[in-house]
Design brief:
Formyl_transf_N; alpha/beta; 7-stranded mixed beta sheet; globular; transferase; 6 helices; about 25% strand; Rossmann fold; GART; single chain; about 190 residues; binds 5-O-phosphono-beta-D-ribofuranosylamine; 7 strands; phosphoribosylglycinamide formyltransferase activity
């Protein structure tokens, strides 16, 4: 059976990228990760992709005349690789109309809060500083807003009195690494 071809988009460390790749080796998520797209050519996730033998498209958006030109190049690479699904995993850039139109309803994002609470940057820090008792992880489809698309799944986490921002981040990431592969498998196999 031909597997769905998917790309992961990431800008930083790539622990979620790694979790997806490893879960796919163990549990067969129903796709093949054929491309890593990275907008920060020196990011650690690029080395991770190389280690796992995943082809990369690491281009700096600043070297293009516009966001549209950058996204056209990315879309061309995605089409070349026959990609039909995109998983954003710490991709620190708002997806623009060019990419959204090309992959309408097929772009999924992970966000480290219980959306709609704490959208945007530094969601873990926002929740920590707000002294809320509960935060969590959300996986959702992307739309033209910032962290506003339809929610697919969420998992809540109690913030403990002993938590620092660092321990909270670690506990959130443990959830992310388990939840993202699970949701991908669910979405691709229903
Ligand atoms: C994750 O917390 C994810 O929810 C957010 O960015 C972070 C990426 O971490 N969107 P990593 O690069 O996967 O380690």
């Amino acid at each position: 059976m031909t597997k769905i071809k998917a790309a992961v988009f990431a800008s930083g460390t790539g622990s979620n990228f790694q979790a997806i790749i490893e879960a796919n080796q163990d549990k067969e998520l129903g796709c093949e990760i054929v491309l890593l797209v990275c907008d920060k050519p020196g990011a650690k996730v690029v080395d991770k992709a190389t280690d796992f033998g995943v082809p990369t498209c690491a281009v700096d958006p600043k070297s293009f005349s516009s966001k549209e030109a950058y996204e056209k190049e990315v879309v061309a690479k995605l089409h070349e690789a026959d990609v039909t699904y995109i998983f954003l995993a710490g991709y620190m850039r708002i997806v623009g109309p060019t990419l959204l139109r090309a992959y309408d309803g097929a772009i999924i994002n992970i966000h480290p809060s219980l959306l709609p609470a704490f959208p945007g940057l530094d969601a873990i820090g926002q929740a920590f500083r707000a002294h809320v008792h509960t935060t969590g992880v959300t996986i959702h489809y992307i739309d033209e807003g910032v962290d506003t698309g339809p929610i697919i799944d969420q998992e809540a986490l109690e913030i403990l009195p002993s938590d620092t921002e660092e321990t909270l981040k670690q506990r959130i990431q443990e959830i992310e690494h388990r939840l993202y592969p699970k949701v991908i498998k669910h979405v691709l196999n229903r």
